[in-house]
């Protein structure tokens, strides 16, 4: 077996499959594109689902990749096990309707055992297979695998809902008896016993059936296009080939661990308890890559996952004695380890460091707040002579403030308190259930549509014409090909078309189809790409249409022109965002409609009003500069050398279109555009908002819609001017300022009058002092307009020694408001009001010196006041 670095393993994998005719698919962004079923890209096949379900036919049916992936459904096990990670790399080879079982197994065995490639010892490989899959068993035997190295496993069948499914065969490496102290042997595999001896290094899924949950597995129909889907974990391969005890002793993690040693002054012992080192090394990789791909820490979704990872790693840093922010210092090491295949981490190093450091500093403040909460919590328990912290409170400290259970236990020990661990674990399980329920179960692919997949007729989109004559080559009605149609809905393919198929955020063209006599025979309502890439016209048929006939295709020119204005403005907006708020503001989705444009981008905070103003002004300046727009068709490598920016989520072939707008913007884009920026006319931002953790959205309009937006604002301003009785719009600001000043003065005057009135009333109220248990208290009903007046009474009461406790009740509208104030250490205002509030069907709380409550039963006010003394 060869001794290879992780980079060499990855490259050898790709080189081998390339030698077998596979196209190398670049690693996709960790944030899924157009796939709401996934929180993260979580496998090598996740980005290839469109090929497997037949919605897109790849240029090459043989694909290989090294895909960065994140799985976070079991974060708590990271650091405890030898091979559990949040971010990992999945190596894969895939066949989309091309080779199947025989070649997949034969080539897999060749890659693993050939001296030219990985050179694994054959006697160390063990293989599992689905018991009913005799073909797979026989194929492994034909490759030279001994029968006693083949293990049948009933679970070796891959299916996840409706869609492609099939048996799978897994390859394991035997690390020997040193990792099997009880000498259990192959039972570890056959009975699926957790172990460190047999390491799964590769899974080959033989996707040959269309799974249907409504029928038994034996009744599944064969797929019209059988596929191969494989996955091999780079981290596991590295551990085996580098002779590492765990994945963490490989060159993928050890450099990070060495840096943590320097920062902590502690030493990593491969045979000791190194959980903190492992957690930090794992989590900083996930953080660096995810943030580099546009995800940012936050309170929900992907953002919550990242925040949780960062806080967990930070707390483990504290366990190692690191008290200052330190995770951001590890980003360069992560980048250097992965640079050969993922240069983007070092390219975005400064931004990633900035986000991580900011989050670490924020967490330090949260920990301080959490410490205060923990102290208050334990004080309350001590006051009630309770010595156990509930599981619910332990979970709150963990989930809200980032306190590991060990930290809470340490604080509790100082106060001679214990923890309700069972309650905490129950709360954790509930959270995990909620998290799993919140994620749409993805991975299941759509059923293959054989009719669409078999459209092979050529079709060319003509960028330069808005109308042309073309031959009709395909008619599909009710998912069947037909020769002619005269009414209803249909899908049409023409040899050439001026209709743009929806792609890259630009909506499809609409328009008309006419026969040779100029009669309207169909309306085009949408255009999408067929699996093999042809523009597929969705039409409402109005007259006779037949195959092989010539038709006049005319797009809706007005609609196309409006869409082009918005699409071209999107390019200007993207460049302006870079210039105003930073290069990290990359596209995370867009929509260019007829009436508006929508642009989503990565950014970690609200775009300020001043920044929006600068962005809007910069875009309009480029419109006024009348910049020429040209499109260049070239190869991808040349386009990148030109500095063309790729758009988020777009798939580019070797030949690409580069859209150049003066010397201001250059992007890869397959859409249609104007000839000059001046045609946009005007640009106006309508709205800026957050749509998810670390993602913002700008909605804007151009041309006529922009003019109408300004006109609407002007009309509203005129309404204000009329209400203020000013004749000129420019007089409105001064008039509003004067009115505000007058209002402020009146409010001050009214507040003073209220205070005088309250003082006068208070003089009588504060005379009615009662005593109980040595405490003086006042309990009265007052007639006030709002709850704020109760606070005014309390402020007056505090300034004099009227009593130790004050309880005031007021019926305000349909509600009852209660205020409790205390100067006595023996009376906690918050606790007292909690005891009194239920009397009026209310609830409330507060601090030891001041608390308020609201209720709905005014008839019980007298009862509440009478029972104050009983609760002191």
Kindly summarize this structure in a few lines.
One of its GO terms (molecular function) is alanine-tRNA ligase activity. Its cofactor is Zn(2+). Helix content is about 35%, strand content about 25%.
Structure, described:
This protein has 872 residues and is α+β, with helices and mostly antiparallel strands. The chain has five domains: 6-244, BirA Bifunctional Protein, domain 2, CATH 3.30.930; 254-438; 450-555, Beta Barrel (Elongation Factor Tu (Ef-tu), domain 3), CATH 2.40.30.130; 563-709, Threonyl-trna Synthetase, Chain A, domain 2 (Threonyl-tRNA Synthetase, Chain A, domain 2); 766-871, Diaminopimelate Epimerase, Chain A, domain 1 (Roll), CATH 3.10.310.40. Helices cover 37% and strands 25% of the residues. The protein contains 24 helices and 35 strands. Strands 1, 2, 3, 4, 5, 6, 7, 8 and 9 form a nine-stranded mixed β-sheet that branches. The longest helix has 35 residues, at 349-383. The protein is globular. Residues 438-446 have low confidence and may be disordered.
Quaternary state of this entry equals single chain
Number of domains: 5
Give the overall form.
Answer: globular
CATH superfamily of the largest domain: Bira Bifunctional Protein, Domain 2
Task: Work out the helicity level.
Answer: 25-40%
> Which second-level CATH architecture of the largest domain applies?
2-Layer Sandwich
**Arithmetic mean pLDDT:** 90
Counting helices, strands and paired strands, the structural category is: alpha+beta
Number of strands: 35
Point out poorly predicted stretches. Answer: 438-446
Q: In CATH's first tier, which class of the largest domain applies? A: Alpha Beta
Counted by DSSP, the helix tally is 24
Radius of gyration: 35 Å
What fold name stands as the CATH topology of the largest domain? BirA Bifunctional Protein, domain 2
Give the percentage of residues in beta strands: 15-25%
Give the biggest beta sheet. Answer: 9 strands, mixed
| Gap from first CA to last CA | 80 Å
